[in-house]
Amino acid sequence: MSDKNALIQPDRGQKATAIHLVDKDGLEAFLKDRTPAQRATLEAQKFAADGYTHAVFPDGEGWAVAAGVANAASLSSWCMARLADVLPGGTYRRAGGEPGAAMLGWITGQYRFDRYKSDAADDAPRILLTGEPRAIDATIAEAEAIELVRDLVNTPAEDMGPGQLEAEAEALGKAFGGQVRITRGDLLEREFPMVQMVGRAAGRAHAPRMIELEWGDAKNPRLAIIGKGVCFDSGGLDIKPSSAMLLMKKDMGGAAHALALARLVMGAQLPVRLHLLVPAVENAVAGNAFRPGDVLKSRAGISVEVGNTDAEGRLVLADALTRAGEGADGKLPDLVIDFATLTGAARVALGPDLPALFAREDATAQALLDGGAAADDPCWRLPLFDGYREMLKSDIADINNAGSGGFAGAVTAALFMDRFVPKGIDWAHFDTFAWRPAAKPGRPKGGDALGLRAAWHMLQRRYAKG
């Protein structure tokens, strides 16, 4: 991957190739201002200002680029991303304006996951200049957070187990002065019994643990960020078919989002008391695997009947949500946000690009939706519908981890988790895919951040300094 800090640079009049962003409404005027030779060159390439298309044309002693965008007056994060992928290495600037939001896609469009390739391409970087240098650091921070999610999710489970997630949290704590606490072994069984039960079959090599990081002034509002850290999900004894298991390295995508969001919060010195929690496990098959029909203890004291061992993510999140809801320093959390690759039902309902959002408070839900709209990171709210709580009834325990009847799987999963969040606490839950099955400009196939920037833009507004 190219050095992200080098991909966006202040414009100090350096020699650079001009990029003209043209929409359909402005195409006629743009062509009118070109020379006959330039118009002929553009026409020969059939340039019609369609989105994500471009053409090159002579410009003095060099050349320039015409690129089609949906709206040249309001740029999306991704409108220049394809250019960053296909143009030759060099330095570029937008002609007649600033790249604005498109700087993010310029960076993420040059992302490559080549850790395991012996012949990885050493592409020359495409550098974009901007006359708004104050926007550079914030853009790079967001791009780094997105690419952290991608790197973690793309890494195979053998190299991204609970121990590696612990190492990521330790690195964050060291970088930003946070305090990291790891709970494992007998203490894990006592303090987070469902995390221990779900992960115990993975053995010592991928032993379960609860990862916690605290950062910031204890006088500030407490913000809990939680991520599902199931580093590989076989389904347990309710084992998945091979086709469904193939992508299960991404089942720690929620943890990747949580780590990345925590990095943004600490890097921006947001005035909060951050509490990051990652229950890190592998849902494996062995003689000591938890079984369908078992009744599990939880940190909250709520007994849980296992209706399906493949509904393990909500179990480990339940213990984490309980811990977050306890607060510390005499203060309960002001807000709890969790990310999880939780249900196939959410993908059936919304597809791969839209994370399902659940929230107790309408104002919080709307703020997250608004943050997503502003950041080109859309999400869609689904209901915490009380009428479906009866689907989680158990004949022998307080609650069942799998809803009966096969309906509303994403809703019943969220309702299960809601049971473990103390009443009165503002809580939001992202059921995200963390994966792109097909590439889009600035968003390659593979692991990706979906819902991350929506949450980040909301948090910046909610906890704005001064």
TrEMBL record:
Transmembrane segments: none annotated. The keyword Disulfide bond does not apply. GO terms for biological process: proteolysis. Gene3D superfamilies: Leucine Aminopeptidase, subunit E, domain 1, Zn peptidases. Residues 308-315 form the Cytosol aminopeptidase domain. Keywords: Aminopeptidase, Hydrolase, Manganese, Protease. SUPFAM superfamilies: Zn-dependent exopeptidases (SSF53187). GO terms for molecular function: manganese ion binding; metalloaminopeptidase activity. The keyword 4Fe-4S does not apply. GO terms for cellular component: cytoplasm. Belongs to the peptidase M17 family. This is Leucyl aminopeptidase. It comes from Novosphingobium colocasiae.
